[in-house]
Every structure is written in C-alpha cells, then in structure tokens.
Amino acid sequence: MKPLSRTLRIGITIGLRQENESMWTNGIKQNALYLAESLKQCPSVASVHLVNTTAVAITPALPWDQARWPTATFEHAKDNLDVLIELGGQVNANQTAYLKEHGCRLISYCCGVEYVNVMQSMLFDRPMWGYDLFVNQRYDAIWMVPQVANSSQSYFETLRRRPAQVVPFVWDPIFVNQRSQDFEHHGEYRPQPGPKRLTVMEPNQDIVKFCMYPVFIAEEAYRQRPQDIALLQVTNADRLAHESKEFVAVMNQLDIVRQHKAVFVGRHDTPQFLSEMTDVVISHQIENALNYFYFDVCWQGYPLVHNAYMCRDLGYFYEGNDVREGSRKLIEVLTTHDDNWQDYIARQRQVLGRYLPACPEVTAEYERLLTTLLQQPLV
C-alpha cells in the first residue's frame, strides 16, 4: 500500500462527566490518551484531538496536559476532522450525518467486554439504555482490542453490521509515573522485612474481574505458609462484605478470614495503595486477558500473580482457574522474589515495551489500518 502523507486530522471521543474527572475512575480516558500517543507516531497523522461528546465544559481542571493532548467539544472539532474514532463518548445520528457529509470517516473503537455487560444488564436488572438504544449503522470500521474479541466480536458485528478487526493494545507508564512521583522510591517496589501484605484489587462489578479466586489463592498459600503472610487486603469489596450474605458465608469458611488476617475495604487509588500498602498483588480475569492494572503493577515492579494468558510473560502466571497453581506461584513469590527484585523490574519493563505508543510494530500496524480505511469508500 502507498503510504499516506502527514495530513490526517484525527479525533478520539471521550465522555466527560465532570470538569476535573480523575484519570483513575476507569480506564477509558487513559485508553483515549494512549491511543492518541500511538496515532501521533504514524507517518500519515498530522494532529490528534480528544473530542468531548457531553455538555461538560473543557477547562484547565482536566487532569492531563492539553498542550500535549488538545481537547475540544464536538462542535469545535467537527469541521477539522478526517477521522473520528468513537471510543469514550458516542456521536448521535445527526452528528454522524454531518461528519459523513464533510467526508469524515467514523471508527467504532471497542475496548470493553460489551457482550458481558449487556448480558448482565438483561439478566440482573442493571439498566443501561432501556428502550432508547441507538446503534450506529454508519461506521467505516470497527476496531477492537485483542482481549474483547472472543467474547464480543460477534456482538459488535451483528449490531453494527460491519466486520470487526483486532488492533494493537497500547499502554504508557506516563500516568502511573506521574501519580507516583511524590511517593517513596517513586512508588516502585522495594523488599520489606517480615511477612508480606497481599492485595486483591479487582473491581468486583461483574464476573470478568472478581475477587473470589484471588482470595482462594491467598487462602491456599496461607494454609501452607501462614508465617509468611501478614495480611490479605481486598479492595472494592466493602459492599460485598456488608450486603452479600452469600459472599460473607463463603469467606467465613476460610482460615485467613477466621484468623483475622483478611480485610475487605472500599475503593482505593491504585498507585498509592501499591506504594503504601502492598507487597504482592493477586489477580484473576475471565475474557479480559490484557489490562492496564496489570501493566501498572508490573511496571512498578510489584510481583503480580495472575492468569492473563495474553501477557503470560509478565509477573507470575498461572493457567485458567487453577487456584492450586496460583497458590504455588504465590508461595514462589513469598520465598524467592526478593532475591532478584531488581532483575524482575527490568524484565517487566522490557516486556511492556511491546505495548508502548512508540513501539515500531504498533506504529506500523496503526498506519496500515489508517491506510486501509482511507482507501475504502465512505459508508
């Protein structure tokens, strides 16, 4: 394919809920910024703007550098775009028509397990849109990150009437570094004497990232090595501990709970909790085998016991739902990790290089995707 000249003006949508919305509320805004950094590396791209689709004003209160990541409302951006990537905020039918009339391509960028979310909404009375569902039929392309393809590709394709294609997952340490700069050792892992503090930080909003198997992994290790575990901390779990009789009943079967070595607390800022409260992180996922949380943890050098097969060379990997294997990995961490902690940090950062915006393979693939997009007729 003939390369494009550096002329493309790209927008990436966000959906602000407040003027000073935290970067750590969810991964969507980080995703938009990482994607912007990646696209800026492409030879065909002249500019990348974030485009807010809500009525929230764009002010200096935003938690990112607007010189580096220019941010505008849809009204201010709509006449200066060649490609709009719908990521964190949806454009409506009239806005779509306007873009198409002015020759702008529209991409649906899918980074969530939408099929799982919709299933749970329907089955468990979690309202999302009610009868007022707008499904855009005029996308020029559907891009999806690798970890959601297995569960949601057909959901995307059938409703949006376009084939979906996998695109590179991108991440950058800029925000975890920024948030951690004032912490001791810039928030990086350092060995601490004595028993270890274990942390589980799953969101506990759905089955995709839930705390039960990580707690079980800690329990299996505690039964064998109680002297090596100071505390198990489970964040985003205070609601479960107070409101779910089933959760409480299961947890009360565990030695680590009965012996008062486990606490179930609320939501915490990830970089701060790692820096101040954590020695080891235990995680489990279903259909979400790449995740910014894993990358933040490993970049900062914390041992991560996880089952994310798409990044099995990070941290300490166990297969599937095998709690016994996970506990063996945890015991390995407890007994040997601190002997080579500096080598571990270096290895994690080397592995994570393949996801960085400036990775040549990432740049080449996004340039190829843009070239293909521009060679297609408008939908």
TrEMBL record:
InterPro entries: DUF2827. This is DUF2827 domain-containing protein.
